[in-house]
Specification:
Elements: H1 3-51, E1 56-65, E2 75-83, H2 88-95, E3 106-110, E4 116-123
Length: 133
């Protein structure tokens, strides 16, 4: 095969190879983002259970994606609904060694049912992943 033919084949194959690499990178980023969210949720649950002796976990929820609906980015959202006899300020005080409560990315609220919900929302490692669009 002449060198012109080899050059032509490589030139035509290069865009396909670049698309394949890009798709694999996006899939890799999605997997890492989901693993990070799961780890964040498990850590939140462990921290709650270690600090609140009478905790009763009602529901655990996590989401990976554009949770705020603004911009093109990926977030890791973890939320846990739980019951306890502690007050909201006591919960924030005992959890403040792990988290900074700022009413947006980390907060505790009391629900209408008398339970508490704690939410943690952080940026994903691959924040510009296709999953955030």
């Amino acid at each position: 095969m002449k060198w012109e033919q080899k050059f032509g084949i490589v030139t035509l194959s290069l865009p396909i190879a670049l698309v394949v690499v890009w798709v694999l990178y996006e899939i890799f980023g999605m997997c890492i983002n989901h693993i990070t969210t799961k780890e964040q949720t498990n850590t939140l649950r462990t921290n709650l259970e270690s600090e609140i002796s009478d905790i009763g976990i009602i529901r655990v929820y996590s989401e990976t994606g554009n949770t705020s609906g603004t911009g093109n980015h990926v977030d890791c959202l973890s939320s846990i609904i739980f019951s306890t006899e502690m007050q909201q300020t006591e919960i924030e005080d005992c959890m403040s060694k792990y988290y900074v409560f700022d009413e947006w990315s980390c907060y505790v609220n009391k629900t209408d049912d008398g339970y508490y919900i704690i939410c943690i929302n952080t940026s994903a490692p691959f924040a510009n992943n296709i999953e955030g669009h």
